Amino acid sequence: MTARTPRLSRLRRLTPGRGEDGVGRSGRRRGATPKVVALGGGQGLSASLAALRRITGDLTAVVTVADDGGSSGRLREELGVLPPGDLRKALAALCGDDDWGQTWARVIQHRFQSEGDLHGHAVGNLLIVALWEQLGDPVQALDLVGRLLGAQGRVLPMSAVPLELQALVRGHDPARPEDVDTVRGQATVALTPGEVLSVQVVPSAPPAVPEAVAAVLDADWVVLGPGSWFSSVIPHLLVPELLDALVETKARRVLSLNLAPQPGETEGFSPQRHLEVLARHAPKLALDVVLADEAAVPDRESLADAAKRFGAAVELAPVARQDGSPKHDPELLAAAYDRIFRMHGRIGPWR
Question: Other CB atoms closer than 10 Å to residue 344's CB: what's the count?
């Protein structure tokens, strides 16, 4: 047990109780759908949420809070708030396919175009920050936005304090290709021309949002990725209480790999190398399933060997859009998740 385990014990009191008959303290019988927690940020998390909301009615997104670019970066610098952009994208992804949901998804994603200070700001960012200032509680404010949108799930920040991403990068300056520099800021790390060796967050050991830890501990399945590997996926493993919850939860854990390396951040990475850097940042983390697009894995044996180090099986499935873009198809990804939930390990009571 780690020194942080007592804190996790206190946080477990936030989760609903589970009786032998499967009924929680809320009186709702467990088993209608699996409880799923998805962790990540940006477009990768949005893709995962758009798929998962099709197969479960009990979905929580836990979102990174290290963004420092664009509208989010400006609001963060000016007001000292959490960067709202990735939280907004997650809320938009959870909007339903009816007219209400799709209208609100477009509204909160809308960006102003002007010659003034509003240029580039997203409507949803301003709405979220306004509610934070009104309510003084980031979780309560996000829940309220979710109700307004009719979001099919809950969105939580992974930490209640804004974080700075720092990376050790070899060759960040092309004139010094062998030198290792410390690169600061998520936007800069994501676009570095060098090789990212490791990342950390500042402040180190930031506090987790208790509701996020509670959701992980009470989940049936936890999904990590896809997304920007060093700036959206790995940061969750740098929040000690959240990492402890991921290690100790009785939930099954799925790692969803990207469809292609990202220019800059993971240029030249093989699927198995993504797993290797994940293991370096969280050596105690175990996984149950690694999901990858079958067309994106040229060396299946090497990926299987890398997955075994986590105790995981590899699931290959067609999850990419048919237009050739490196983006996930929500329907195909939903089918892959559904098959994994049904076929791997224990069969949940929702079946």
Answer: 16
Two structure tokens written together for 193: 């021309």
Residues 104/106/109/114 CA torsion (nearest 10 deg): -120
Asked if residue 283 has a cis previous peptide bond (ω within 30° of 0), the answer is: no
Asked if 42 and 90 touch (Cβ cutoff 8 Å), the reply is no
- Which whole-number Å values give the CA distances from 225 to 2, 18, 74, 242, in the listed order? 25, 28, 26, 15
Q: Counting Cβ atoms within 10 Å, is residue 211 exposed (0-12), middle (13-18) or buried (19+)?
A: buried
Task: Locate 88 and state its tokens.
Answer: 């907004």
CA distance 287 to 222: 10
Beta strands in the chain (DSSP E): 35-40, 58-63, 154-157, 164-170, 180-184, 195-202, 221-224, 252-256, 289-293, 313-317
Q: pTM for the complete prediction?
A: 0.87
Q: Is the peptide bond before 203 cis (omega within 30 degrees of 0)?
A: yes
Encoded amino acid at 282, one letter? A
- Alpha-carbon gap, residue 349 to 351, rounded angstroms: 5
**Beta-carbon neighbour count of residue 54 at 10 Å?**
17
Q: Could you identify the residue written with the tokens 């690694």?
A: 290
Give CA–CA dist 57/51, Å, rounded: 12
What pLDDT, in 10s, does the model give residues 112-150? 888 878 787 899 999 999 999 999 999 999 999 999 999
Pairing, β 180-184 against β 154-157 = unpaired
pLDDT tens digit string along 294-326? 999 999 999 999 999 999 999 999 999 988 788
Q: How many CA atoms lie within 13 A of 264 on its CB side?
A: 15
Q: Is 301 exposed, middle or buried, given 0-12, 13-18 or 19+ CB atoms closer than 10 A? A: exposed
Q: Which two tokens stand for residue 223?
A: 């999904």
> Which 3 state secondary structure label does DSSP give 5?
helix
